[in-house]
Specification:
- The complex is a heterodimer of chains A (463) and B (534).
- Chain A has 463 residues and is an alpha/beta fold.
- Chain A folds into 2 domains: 31-217 and 224-272, 3-Layer(aba) Sandwich (Rossmann fold); 299-455, 3-Layer(aba) Sandwich (Rossmann fold), CATH 3.40.50.
- Chain A has 19 helices and 14 strands.
- Chain A has helices at residues 7-10, 13-19, 33-42, 55-69, 82-87, 90-104, 115-119, 124-134, 153-168, 187-200, 232-237, 257-265, 277-292, 298-318, 329-341, 358-365, 381-391, 403-409, 433-455, and strands at residues 25-26, 47-52, 76-77, 108-113, 141-144, 177-181, 203-206, 243-247, 268-272, 322-326, 345-350, 374-376, 395-398, 413-415.
- In chain A, helix 9 runs parallel beside helix 12 (257-265).
- By secondary structure, chain B is α/β, with parallel strands linked by helices.
- Chain B has a domain at 65-189: Nitrogenase molybdenum iron protein domain (Rossmann fold, 3-Layer(aba) Sandwich), CATH 3.40.50.1980.
- Helices cover 43% and strands 11% of the residues of chain B.
- Chain B contains 21 helices and 14 strands.
- In chain B, strand 10, helix 15 (358-368) and strand 11 (372-377) form a beta-alpha-beta unit.
- The interface between A and B is large, with 85 and 93 residues.
- Strand 1 of chain A pairs antiparallel with strand 3 (116-117) of chain B, so a sheet runs across the interface.
Chain lengths: 463, 534
């Protein structure tokens, strides 16, 4: 290919300034806002995500989420047509939600907007009140505004979680409970977090919990949809928690579920980095110890100790290796922190997100990150590939979307995050906590060993 | 092929099941759905309310206009640089998400690996996106220097009033290459079908006919509506080559821009997916005098039938003999696997809900191995795809269809060249040869099979409970829920990332996969020992 990537030299700076961004995005490193909202809603027990707009959005989003999770997900739509686009969608919203209520008997309906609804200026609060007038229901209809031209899938995810607690949580006497808002993590991560909370012996609201609803069992009897998810009752109780823990350093200064609970009910917010690797996980466990008032269970001493022991065993294979890290901003920060503590230098840290806090948050989390590491938000895969071609990393770490780049560059790809649609088990890659770091570490080392073995003419069998 | 004696063998009556499916709907929804769920009679085909709007909140398999245009018809033209104008999601979702494979000819680029988007931000929604689109085209041109560029619109574009056709004209003048805009905003039409039509119109107006250089072969033809999923087009191409037939263009599967521009030089158009591309077939007939007829290369017996029809059209002794020799050779090669699989699969029952032609075509593959189809339906087809083209004059044009331009086509003053003389056409017709001839899915399905258009999740669940089919063919959105219920589900959009299934060679793959899916032991492990009666 002549055009491997845009590269710095090809950047038309004048264009960039005039249109407030790179004019053409080539293989985006982000997905659309309502996708994140649909996933967040599907992590609520009995919730049907509902997209207000063209049916194509729900179809594409289902198709995409399913390719990663290999699980069914129903996303309803108000099925806009030309006339609806001109005259507004109140009638189709009422009819659509009515049909969902009848067919699915959901516990909650999670309504998110699409670009179409946002462009014509649909007022979701009014639509929900129209719906209540036309078709009174006791099923809560939570709504969130998710124009894709205002953010990425991660923004949609966080905004949907915020909408859930802002519209459903109730106040009252404080309880011995904590709220945990981990963001968009894997189903294995969610299961691990639940185990941690249970081991600490503290009541909790974990939102959004799609560990079962998006990674479930075969059914022994017909179901309307995959069981599992955060119970509505737990979301109601979030206003009475002792504290909220939220993952994601780039969320500082942004309105989130935890800030909503802090404002409305005075629930203290603790923002920590996505706990990948020892340092960020230590910080999470510190906060958990503090807010729960309980000692860290011994089990985790063991996990941490074994992880450190593995770091020592594997160090000779990974130190001084160089990596390109890409994906959602907070995932990249966590991965960079983990990589740098095992001796790997992240030479590129890139995301399609646009939080405007990425570089600052990353350098805060990874003070030992070299100054010359390329740290960029609003990057696409052409940008990433151009940098990777220049910097010649030992491996790439990120979603399946880096496959073609890795193939062209002849560099192995370690699949993490979302979407992973060219491997089985993409939905249950474990990243978080000491145990998650253990799995990541083993995979990183083994990727390097496998390559070393494959490339070696000698054929070493003990490594 | 209809045989009214051969009725579908199911335990509960299709009428009863239909009532059960409709029972939960409120009156208005029920009135609409009951016209889309029908008990078939191939001798008196009932009218189906296909290509009507999906009811809001009924979870559908259908996609949008943009998907039909960008994803289906335009996506496979591998050296056409396609820029999606809109916010990021739509561009991203069309990034290699269909399995339309390509092996570019030497020296040609493959842009299918790229997802180019203007990634619209709020500024563009408020102040207009034409400027960013122009800049995007210039930047993309600077990087790739493509032969031609397509601009594909997503929902907000029409609403904010960006004139993408004007931008296309400007850029065409400025860059000196073909730049074509597609107003395929997602909300137009009732499904992806509208997008197919829009793509057909623009390809016909702005690409086909640009290059009059014919192929060198003695017998040249196009296949329209073959998208090379899993390499199907490669199998068909190889088979035709073996017979001595040259494919000028496959629209659109592993095809390059210049092949599309030369498509009007072929001697014949054959149509695989009638739904998505019959428009181009009809327009090429009118403008250039190229006749078309329907073929199906899915299923060994259908492949043989299609080959024979093509040979009959060309009316050449040598070709006919070669075709017969190839059929005999391929059928003989296929026989052992076909017999072996048939022995294990005969009498099993399948249901297919997919596409605008696939739910029909794959019935022929199932017929090859004795699997009975108890129910089928399309996602986005029209009445003619169900009932046959003879109903075309009686189809009511509703507001949604009226949105899509119907091109008025006249014979090309210089290039209209009927491939057959009126006498030859008459001679063919007198032998029972048919042109422009799709008889639809229902004609071929057995009496009292259940035909369900745009099936919903709820209806699928009822169907599984009542009919307990041994296998369901559908797409990724249904696959996993169907398998949760213990029924294997074959994806016929992506082929579950396998294939090819077309022609004789592909048929063998399909037989083996269906055999594997029907006879795997995994379903027997579902109940754990502690839940089994002792």
């Amino acid at each position: 290919m002549t055009a491997l990537g845009k590269g710095a030299a090809l950047k038309n700076e004048r264009c960039y300034e005039e249109v407030g961004g790179d004019p053409v995005t080539q293989n985006a490193c982000k997905l659309c806002t309502p996708l994140g909202a649909c996933l967040a809603f599907r992590g609520v027990a009995g919730c049907i995500p509902f997209l207000h707009g063209s049916q194509g959005c729900s179809t594409y989003i289902r198709r995409y989420l399913i390719s990663h999770f290999r699980e069914p997900i129903d996303v309803a739509s108000s099925n806009f047509h030309e006339q609806t686009a001109v005259f507004g969608g109140s009638a189709v919203f009422t009819a659509g939600v009515g049909n969902v209520l009848r067919q699915y008997q959901p516990a909650v309906v999670g309504a998110a907007t699409t670009c179409l609804a946002e462009t014509i200026g649909e007022d979701m609060e009014r639509l929900v009140s129209d719906l209540q007038k036309a078709n009174p229901t006791t099923v809560p209809v939570v709504h969130v505004s998710t124009a894709s031209y205002r953010g990425t899938h991660i923004d949609g995810f966080h905004d949907a979680v915020r909408a859930l607690v802002a519209q459903l949580a109730q106040g009252g006497a404080p309880l011995d409970r904590v709220n945990l808002f981990p963001g968009m993590v894997s189903t294995a991560d969610l299961r691990h977090l639940k185990e941690v909370l249970e081991d600490f012996g503290v009541g909790y609201t974990l939102l959004s919990d799609y560990s079962e609803s998006m990674d479930g069992e075969t059914w022994s009897r017909p179901e309307k949809q995959q069981p599992g998810g955060t119970p509505l009752a737990d979301i109601r109780l979030a206003g009475r928690g002792k504290a909220s823990i939220e993952f994601g350093r780039t969320l500082a200064g942004r309105e989130t579920a935890a800030t909503a609970l802090a404002e409305k009910f005075g629930v203290a917010r603790h923002l920590v980095g996505t706990p990948i690797g020892i340092r960020e996980t230590d910080r999470f466990f510190d906060v958990l110890r503090l807010v729960s008032g309980r000692a860290t269970p011994e089990k985790y001493q063991g996990q941490r100790g074994r992880l450190l022991d593995a770091y020592v065993d594997g160090h000779k294979y990974v130190f001084e290796k160089r990596a390109v890290v890409y994906g959602e901003e907070d995932l990249v920060i966590g991965l960079a922190s983990f990589l740098s503590e095992i001796g790997v230098t992240p030479v590129v840290c890139a995301s399609g997100g646009r939080s405007k806090r990425f570089a600052e948050s990353l350098r805060e989390a990874v003070p030992d990150l070299p100054a010359e590491t390329v740290v960029r938000e609003d990057f696409d895969f052409a940008d990433i590939e151009a940098e990777a071609a220049r910097l010649k990393p030992d491996f790439l770490i990120g979603s399946s979307k880096g496959y073609a780049m890795g193939k062209r560059l002849g560099v192995p790809l370690i699949r993490v995050g979302f979407p992973v649609h060219d491997r089985i088990g993409g939905q249950r890659i474990h990243h978080l906590g000491y145990l998650g770091a253990q799995e990541l570490f083993d995979r990183v080392v083994n990727t390097i060993l496998e390559r070393k073995q494959a490339m070696s003419p000698v054929g070493y069998s003990y490594l | 092929m209809s045989d009214s004696e051969a009725t579908a063998t199911v335990d509960i009556s299709p009428e009863e099941l239909r009532e059960e499916m409709l029972a939960i709907y409120p009156p208005k929804t029920k009135r609409k759905r009951q016209k889309q769920i029908l008990v078939n009679d191939p001798d008196a085909i009932p009218e189906i309310a296909a290509n009507t709007r999906t009811i809001p909140g009924i979870i559908t398999q259908r996609g949008c206009t943009y998907a039909g245009c960008r994803g289906v018809v335009m996506g496979p033209i591998y050296d056409l640089l396609q820029i999606v104008h809109g916010p990021i999601g739509c561009g991203f979702y069309a990034w290699m998400s269909r399995r339309n494979l390509a092996r570019p000819k030497p020296g040609l680029p493959n842009y299918m690996q790229y997802s180019m988007s203007t990634d619209m931000m709020e500024e563009q929604i408020v102040f207009g996106g034409e400027k960013k689109l122009r800049q995007a085209i210039l930047e993309a041109y600077e990087i790739f220097k493509p032969k031609a560029i397509a601009i594909l619109a997503t929902c907000p574009v029409g609403l904010i009033g960006d004139d993408i056709h004007q931008v296309a004209r400007e850029m065409k003048d400025k860059l000196g290459i073909n730049v074509v805009a597609f107003s395929c905003e997602g909300y137009k039409g009732v499904s992806q079908s509208a997008g197919h039509h829009i793509a057909n119109n623009e390809v016909f107006k702005n690409m086909i006919g640009l290059d009059d250089t014919p192929d060198q072969g003695e017998f040249t033809m196009n296949i329209l509506g073959e998208y090379n999923i899993g390499g199907d087009a490669w199998e068909i191409d190889a088979l035709l080559k073996k017979c001595g037939i040259t494919l000028t263009a496959t629209l659109s599967g592993d095809v390059n821009y210049s092949q599309v521009c030369r498509a009007h030089t072929a001697q014949l158009n054959t149509v695989m997916c009638h739904r998505s591309i019959n428009y181009i077939a009809g327009m090429m007939e009118k403008k250039y005098g190229i006749p078309w007829f329907k073929v199906n290369f899915l299923g060994a017996d259908s492949t043989a039938k299609s080959l024979r029809k093509i040979a009959q059209y060309f009316d050449n002794k040598g070709l006919t003999e070669r075709v017969e020799a190839v059929i005999a050779e391929e059928q003989a090669k296929l026989k052992p696997v076909r017999d072996e699989v048939t022995a294990r699969c005969k009498g099993k029952r399948a249901a297919l809900f997919v596409g605008g032609s696939r739910a029909h075509h794959y019935q022929d593959l199932f017929a090859d191995i004795g699997v009975e189809v108890v129910s089928a339906g399309y996602e986005f087809a029209h009445r003619d795809d169900y009932e046959g083209r003879h109903v075309l004059p009686t189809i009511k044009v509703d507001a949604d269809s009226r949105n899509i331009e119907e091109l008025h086509v006249e014979p090309d003053p210089a290039r209209y060249n009927p491939r057959k003389t009126p006498e030859q056409m008459e001679a063919l017709k007198s032998q029972g040869f048919t042109f422009e001839d799709y008889e639809g899915m229902m004609k071929q399905m057995k009496k009292r099979t259940l035909v369900i258009d745009d099936i919903s999740h709820h209806e699928m669940e009822k169907l599984i409970e009542a009919y307990k089919p041994d296998i369901i063919c559908s797409g990724i959105k249904d696959k996993f829920v169907v398998e949760k219920m213990g029924v294997p589900c074959k994806q016929l959009h992506s082929y579950d990332y396998s294939g090819p299934y077309a022609a004789f060679t592909g048929a063998a793959n399909f037989y083996k996969e269906i055999d594997r899916m029907l006879n795997t032991g995994v379903w027997k492990l579902i109940t754990p020992p502690w839940e089994k009666p002792s």
